[in-house]
Specification:
Layout: H1 4-10, E1 14-15, E2 26-27, H2 29-48, E3 52-53, E4 59-61, H3 62-68, H4 70-73, E5 82-84, E6 87-91, H5 96-104, E7 115-124, E8 140-150, H6 155-173, E9 179-184, H7 195-212, E10 216-220, E11 229-235, E12 241-250, H8 252-256, E13 261-262, E14 268-269, E15 272-277, H9 282-293, E16 306-310, H10 316-328, E17 333-335, H11 343-349, E18 355-359, H12 361-366, E19 368-373, E20 382-383, H13 384-396
Parallel strand pairs: 3-7, 9-10, 16-17, 16-18
Antiparallel strand pairs: 1-2, 4-6, 5-6, 7-8, 8-15, 9-11, 11-12, 12-15, 13-14, 18-19, 19-20
Helix pairs in contact: 1-9, 6-7
The chain binds zinc ion (ZN).
């Protein structure tokens, strides 16, 4: 079983320090590379799907969360407020209230809808130290979040498009959902009132799931306090299930923040808010990726994509030239020098690197490179330009297979 806490430390991806605090991991350079690649994938996918990105502060006045309902329904999970100039300021437990206020800051016509607002932003949760460990239960969270402000007629299509973005992301990440869950309110939970709104949003999400043809289970007691949601569940190495992605339909926040748009009739109308996250928190997503792949990430995510192995010191200049060509193409390459051990030992050390580029005397003389793939396949020597072109194309299209076609 792969435990991301152990592997994350062994691979130099992240760590924690008691002086910084429990549940507050820091990212080492190789982990930061993985996270950066993941965030860039998400931002690009969102831009292509018509989302516009914003930045909003990680703090807000207590009043903001009183309006959103977090203060009365969610304060157990929030950090205590800080007193500042006679006001109380809190670390935000979610991005939604900020986005609602950003929407409200400008007037909107029905022609602008659906308005898709996205942010990869920080949020905070006052997890108890007893449940902290690794990247799955943290106090500082980087959330991949977005809010779609739309008309009632547009909700189903937007929710379905979000599910399709999730499907494509999972394909690129090489992970698969364990199940889709329709998360409904349960008895005794802290939920906002308005039964008719709950019924409407539940009916909409059910319709989306039915139309997508996805197998799902309805589970009571897992809804957000303000509405039901579709959760995409994954299972970790120890068999524990958790939520990675979510799509929610919310009639509550638009009421609370008095959001509106001007309709074709010139009158004010209330938009619906669709909350959606493709990969959830970056921390949880990377934890899952580490466990799922045992550190052997898809090439586009790998901290080092190409390890260059000169057989002897004579080929070092060729290795340096190849590393430069990789860097020029945006590929992350590293040289494993001959003094670090035998070729076999260096290949074993680089077993998680997708592409192992061996340069011997013959390859050096002809500007060739003999590539070994992480999965054990060995390719015949190929011209350097061809190898880099093919790796670049596979990485650029976020493919999970390491090579096009059979080795020659
Ligand atoms: Zn939200």
């Amino acid at each position: 079983m792969n435990d991301h806490r152990k592997l994350g430390r062994e691979l130099g991806l992240f760590d924690t320090d008691p002086l910084i605090g429990a549940g507050l991991p820091y990212w080492l350079p190789d982990g930061a590379v993985v996270r950066h690649a993941l965030e860039e994938y998400i931002r690009t996918a969102e831009r292509k799907a018509g989302y516009r990105h914003v930045y909003s502060p990680v703090l807000g006045k207590r009043e903001l969360y009183e309006i959103s309902g977090h203060w009365s329904h969610y304060s157990d999970d929030m950090f205590p407020p800080m007193e500042l100039g006679g006001e109380q300021v809190v670390l935000r437990p979610s991005l939604c209230p900020h986005h609602a206020v950003i929407y409200r800051s400008r007037s909107h016509s029905y022609r602008e809808l659906p308005l898709r607002m996205a942010e990869l932003g920080g949020m905070y949760r006052s997890e108890l130290s007893g449940v902290l460990g690794g990247l799955t239960r943290v106090r500082a969270i980087q959330l991949n979040d977005a809010h779609i402000f739309c008309t009632l007629d547009q909700v189903a299509e937007e929710a379905q498009a979000a599910l399709e973005m999730i499907r494509r992301a999972y394909e690129a990440l090489g992970i698969s959902p364990a199940r889709y869950r329709l998360s409904l309110p349960g008895p005794g939970g802290k939920y906002v009132a308005a039964p008719e709104l709950w019924q409407r949003s539940t009916a909409l999400l059910t319709e989306v799931l039915e139309r997508s043809g996805l197998p799902y289970e309805a589970v009571e007691g897992e809804a957000a306090f303000y509405g039901p949601k579709i959760d995409v569940q994954v299972v970790d190495g120890a068999g524990r299930e958790s939520t990675l992605s979510t799509v929610q339909v919310d009639f509550h926040q638009p009421e609370r923040f008095d959001l509106h748009y001007i309709g074709a009739d010139g009158a004010k109308h209330r938009p619906v808010m669709v909350h959606r996250s493709i990969i959830g928190s970056v921390e949880r997503a990377v934890a899952h990726l580490i466990e799922e792949h045992g550190g052997a990430f898809p090439a586009w995510l790998a901290p080092t994509q190409v390890v260059i192995l000169p057989v002897s010191a004579a080929e070092l200049p060729n290795a340096v030239a190849l590393a430069e060509r990789c860097a020029h193409r945006g590929l992350r390459a590293e040289i494993a020098e001959p003094e670090r051990g035998s070729l076999g030992a260096r290949i074993r050390e680089a077993r998680l690197v997708p592409y192992q580029a061996v340069i011997g005397a013959k390859e050096a003389a002809d500007d060739l490179v003999a590539v070994r793939l992480r999965d054990g396949r060995r390719l015949d020597p190929l011209p350097v330009g061809e190898v880099l072109g093919r790796i670049g194309a596979l990485v650029g299209s976020h493919r999970t297979d390491l090579w096009d076609g059979a080795p020659r």
